[in-house]
Amino acid sequence: MVRSTSLLRAVSKDNHILGLRSRGIDIIRNPRTNKGMAFTLPERQVLGIHGLLPPTVLTQEEQLYRTMQSFTRQPTDLDRYILLAGLQDRNEKLFYRIVSENVESMMPIVYTPTVGLACQRFGLIYRRPRGLFVTIHDRGHVFELLSNWPEESVKAVVVTDGERILGLGDLGAFGMGIPIGKLALYTALGGVKPHQCLPIMLDVGTDNEDLLDNKLYIGLRQKRERGPVYDELVDELMHAITERWGANTLIQHEDFANANAQRLLDKYQQRYCMFNDDIQGTAGVALAGLLASLRVSGKQMKDHKFLFQGAGSAACGIANFLVLQMIEDGLTEEEAVSRVWMNDADGLVVQDRE
Fold first, then answer.
1. pTM to 2 decimals?
2. Are strands 340-344 and 347-348 parallel, antiparallel or unpaired?
């Protein structure tokens, strides 16, 4: 086996990517350094992985083709989700290339709607740790937990407490699939480096009796903690994130229940680099779509009335943005609010409704 200095130089154009600080099987087991069968013979020799892979060298393009062939042959979307999750755990470069080059077919699998089913089956399909689980019992030690995360440069954190996962309700710790999926899109579509993304599950229990009785449930088996104790944990987490990685770390709140979503946004948005995706992200996209349609109709937002089917955090966020836009169009706040109505499972939402 050749181990000359010239050979080492030939394969060390990017020491970080090739992972030359480690050798052997660890390089293949690390999804950040693993290239699957794309390692050339000189790379295999220098990195100590010669013989640990089949002798054929497959380019990333060839591996992409093989993966897509397997992807299309899966019988269900959940099976496709599991296949992609496994690829992400083995070979990050190939995973993100596939997602970024096949957005139309991958988006419904990596995120909605398939991620909802994946969350419901999370205990069954869970394979490998990804992200951090911070529980209500970790109060007073959250910074220590964050210090266990091996990356020194985290730019984006997505955190959920799992209480209102999509339209599925309280999924507790099974909701971890949401931050994982959302951050995969940060990388595939936004270009944020994978190691700079951190999904966090804030596990304070669940009020879902089916989960508490489920032998496959991976979270705390207790009723959901609320009140001051809950607030203390969120406070500690927000502070610990910025203490660990800096004040410019982006913190995204995802799928918090109505009772907490707006309250926590009001509490933290002036103190931290944070936003609530359900309230602000969804609302921004919806408002942009409506503004684009007004260019066609030639009317203003104030010329319309709006009825929402549902009164969750996303609907409330969109409604708030509509009111702001109508105020900008010249209405008073009272006039703008009078043009927005909401209907939920119990009927029209009005002030005197019990």
1. 0.87
2. antiparallel
CA terminus-to-terminus distance, the chain = 79
* Residue 187: DSSP 8-state: H
Q: How far is CA 194 from the centre of its chain?
A: 11
Joined tokens for residue 334: 């009272």
Neighbours of 20 (CB within 10 A): 17
- What pLDDT shows up at residue 11? 52
Task: Tell me if 219 sits within 8 A of 177, measured CB to CB.
Answer: no
Closest listed residue to residue 256, CA positions, set 165, 135, 133, 137: 165
Active-site residues, by number, are 111, 182
Task: Say how far apart CA 94 and CA 71 lie, in whole Å.
Answer: 13
The whole-angstrom distance between residue 85's C-alpha and the CA centroid of its chain comes to 13
List the beta strands (DSSP E) in the chain.
132-135, 156-160, 197-203, 250-253, 274-276, 306-309, 340-344, 347-348
Residue owning tokens 């406070």 = 235
Give me the mean pLDDT over the 58-84 stretch: 97
